[in-house]
Each structure stands twice: as C-alpha cells, then as structure tokens.
Write a structure and sequence with these properties.
The chain is mainly alpha-helical. 76% of the residues lie in helices and 0% in strands. The protein contains eleven helices and no strands.
Length: 299
C-alpha cells in the first residue's frame, strides 16, 4: 500500500525537490532534529545548585529558533517584492539588533533618513511583540504583568515608525532589498544559544544571591547591549523566592530599554548622519517611554 502510494507520488515529489533549494531541505531536517530527536531525550530534572534544567533549556532554544525561522521563511518568500519596511517588520521578529545594524549599513548609502529611521523604529516595535510571545510560553505571570505595556509600546513604535517613514526625503525612489538574514536552523547556532542561555542563567542567579536587586538591574542594563533573548529567557526561569515578580519584570523592562539605546548607538555610528541622528533620537524616546510608567518598576 505504502509502496504504491510512493510510486504514484513519485512525479510530484521529484517536482517538489526541484523547486525547493537543497539548503531548505537541510534546514527542515535540522528543525526535526532540534524538536523531534533532541528535545524528547533531554533530562527533565534540575541539576547543580543553579537548578539548571536541560529540558527547559533546550525548550527555550527550540522556541527562539522556531520564531526566528518563521521570520526567515517569510523573508525568503517575500524576497522579490519585500521593501525596507517589510524587512524591518520580519527582521524584528528574527532579531531587531541584527536588523537595525543591517538597515543602518544600507542607510549609509542612501539619503532617505525618514524612511530608514522609521523602519529601524518599527523593528524595535516588533521586538516587544516577540518578547510577549516568549513570556507567554515560559512564564505566564510575567506575561500578564508585562503584556499590556509591551503591546502598547509595540503599537506606538510600529505606528510612529510607519508615519515617520512616510515623511518626504530628498530621495524618494524605492530602495531595493539587500538584507538577507542567516538561517537560524543551524545546529551549531542552536548549541551556541544554549550555552549563552546557561551562562547568563548562572550569572543572573549569582547576581541575585550576592548583589541583590541593584545588581540584577545593572546586569539587565549590561545584557541589553547585545541580544536580550538569553538574559530574558533566563529571567523567566529565575527562582520566585530569590527573585520576586516585580524584580523580574523590572529587569526585563530595563534590558529591553537598554537594547533600544544600544541599537540607537549602532544606527548613529553606522548609518548616514541624518539617518543615524534621527534613529538614535527615536530609539532613545522608545527606551524612555519603556521606563516611564512607575508600575513597571514598582516593588
């Protein structure tokens, strides 16, 4: 029965393999390895005084990789017609920091400061949507506390970025797409993310024990300079008795705001001067807005 079905499907399968790039088939294989092979065999108990749970660690890797891969696939599908704003939205789901750097580098060759700075702001708006998804998956209490402000920030950044990008520039011709994200479904990248997650989890718990709340907030600000995902995912796994909900919430807010400030600096350093100046102003404003409501940092 199965043999007959395969024989009947032979022509269709051969046509499918011609249309799909071999690299994409390899990516799908990696995804199956990450989810269906490795995840089920990983131990589900805590190890060491730091309460490292290998299953939760790999589940974080799978979740982050899946969201990034979804963005990657959409960017590949929209490649022929995707403009700068679409790259900003899909790239923000992949990595707002990487997208900001890519857009800033491209903006250094274009005299369209409103268009590019608006797109960079939109990428950071998508970052807040990405964080809400991760919080919902790994810590419902944090999601309930942070979803309203984060969704509000996402809406403000996306709407303001789109409106700002529509303002006229000296040059108004369409910009051809160049940014091509790296495929996130590489096993080496997945293992690297797992190691970074574990390292930041250990550092966070050491900071909680030895430096207390001020240390956690300072660590959040430092970690926000690079990719915030490993730090924030580590905070979602923090022990409630050592790290109260209010402290974890505030540290996530600080890390996100720090990341926005860092992206503003990257844009200012890499983009066309007008684009960089507008980008850093917009992202400083978003960072300040993210820290404004006192309830987010209340004890």
């Amino acid at each position: 029965m199965a043999s007959a079905l395969l024989l009947e499907s032979k022509t269709a399968l051969e046509g499918l393999t011609k249309r799909i790039h071999p690299g994409e088939i390899f990516s799908l294989t990696n995804f199956l390895v990450l989810t269906a092979v490795i995840l089920p065999i990983v131990p589900k108990r805590d190890f060491s005084p730091f309460q490292v749970n290998p299953f939760k660690t790999w589940l974080v890797v799978v979740a982050v990789t899946t969201v990034s891969y979804g963005s990657y696939v959409l960017q590949q599908l929209t490649k022929p017609k995707g403009g700068v704003l679409l790259v900003a939205i899909l790239g923000g789901a992949y990595s707002s920091t990487v997208t900001t750097v890519a857009l800033a580098k491209r903006a250094s060759r274009e005299d369209q400061p409103h268009h590019f700075s608006g797109a960079i702001l939109m990428a950071s708006g998508v970052m807040y949507l990405r964080l809400v998804i991760f919080l919902d998956l790994f810590n419902r209490n944090l999601m309930i506390r942070l979803a309203p402000p984060f969704l509000g920030l996402a809406f403000v950044a996306l709407a303001a970025g789109w409106i700002w990008s529509r303002r006229p520039d000296a040059r108004s011709e369409a910009v051809k797409r160049e940014f091509e994200p790296a495929n996130p479904l590489e096993l080496r990248a997945a293992f690297l993310f797992a190691m970074l997650f574990l390292a930041r989890l250990v550092v966070t718990r050491l900071t909680v024990v030895h430096l207390g709340r001020p240390g956690v907030y300072a660590l959040a600000a430092i970690m926000g300079v690079t990719d915030v995902d490993p730090f924030i995912m580590g905070i979602t796994q923090a022990t409630p008795s050592l790290t109260p909900l209010a402290v974890r919430s505030a540290s996530i807010v600080i890390a996100a705001a720090s990341n926005n400030l860092a992206k503003g600096i990257y844009a200012y350093a890499m983009a066309h001067r007008k684009t960089g100046a507008r980008s850093i102003c917009l992202l400083i404003g978003l960072a300040a807005l993210g820290l404004a409501p006192p309830i987010w940092l209340s004890t």
